Fold these 4 entries.
Entry 1:
Amino acid sequence: QVQLVESGGGLVQAGGSLRLSCAASGSIFSIDAMGWYRQAPGKQRELVAIITSSSSTYYGDPVKGRFTISTNNAKNTVYLQMSGLKPEDTAVYYCTLVSRGSSSWGQGTQVTVSS
């Protein structure tokens, strides 16, 4: 079983920055991809960013050019550097890990951007 622990969320003013971290532990045999999704109240969960085992990255349209995803493979950790934050970025951010076709999820971390 895989455990994912997110950290780094909080309250920030519009235009500010935050860095989220997600550390994976447990029975990890191989990692196909790690990434972030978010869910705002009353909305569906949406892709924020994904990074694959070959270091390819994919971003949701709303965050392109503002957010950057990276990993520390030695530590099984994924990061999300968020800059130019907007009130519409307010959501619970969930870390995900894909291994052998199966996805694991973290408990989520709240990001609130004030205007």
Entry 2:
Amino acid sequence: QVQLVESGGGLVQAGGSLRLSCRAPENIFRVVAMGWYRQAPGKERELVARITTDGRTMYVDSVKGRFTISRDNGKNTVYLQLNNLKPEDTAVYYCNAGGSLWSRGAIWGQGTQVTVSS
């Protein structure tokens, strides 16, 4: 079973920043798009951002200008920089591997909690 190892969540005040990391096995990371999704209590899991192997990115409108997705191919790791956090960003954030720039893959991480206090 493919494992995606996430880290970087936590509790932060509104306006603060966090950086999430997701490390994937090398044989997977080098050939697939990666993405971040989030799920707030009582809500559906939703797309946050995605990145292809050649660095093309896309973001959901609510995070544009605040979040940045990037990938380090040498470390087999995808990052999500979260700036100017808002209470409505509070959710469990999940790493996703596979798919394309516009579609999710089949591999998920265990999730990391991000809590933003007002």
Entry 3:
Amino acid sequence: QVQLVESGGGLVQPGGSLRLSCAVSAPNFSINAMVWFRQTPGKGREWIATITHNGDTNYLTSVKGRFTISRDNAKHTLYLQMNSLKPEDTAVYYCNKLPLLNYWGQGTQVTVSA
């Protein structure tokens, strides 16, 4: 079973930056498109970004230009560099593969607050 372990969240002031990581235990990691989602209390998970196996990326409009998704296939790790953070970015962040698995990791909490 593929395991997803997110890390790197924390408390940051508005305008600050964080880099999230997602360690993926999948032998075929390099051929999978990968995604980041986020979830706030009372709301469903929201797609944020996708990166294909060859590095093509796509972003939610509200994070485009501030967030960057990347991957290190040798390390089986997915990243999300988040800059110019806003209070509305506060959420639990999750990674997954495409097609989506029917389960999620524990996520990592990002709190943007002064």
Entry 4:
Amino acid sequence: QVHLVESGGGLVQAGGSLRLSCAASGRMLSNYVMGWFRQAPGKEREFVAVITWSGTSISYADSVKGRFTISRDNVKSTVYLQMNSLKPEDTAVYYCNAYYRSNEYWGQGTQVTVSS
């Protein structure tokens, strides 16, 4: 069992920045691929970024490349999403995800609202 708690969301003007955090707890965390997804009102949940606990593999959605950076602190068991140059279309609930084989866990989500 893995427990994920997101924080750091809020309201920001277009062009601003936010940093989301995902604190993870549980067994065998080093086996899990950690990711961020988001879901805007009326839309399906979509992939944002993913990182392995070793940090050797990172991937981003095209829509956030060059603006968002995913990272992790293994000592704190925390994954971050640094979001720069935010746009109104980045407005969504952002969810942390942990995945390993057939095991998948989600956090409760944190709201990010970008005003124009």
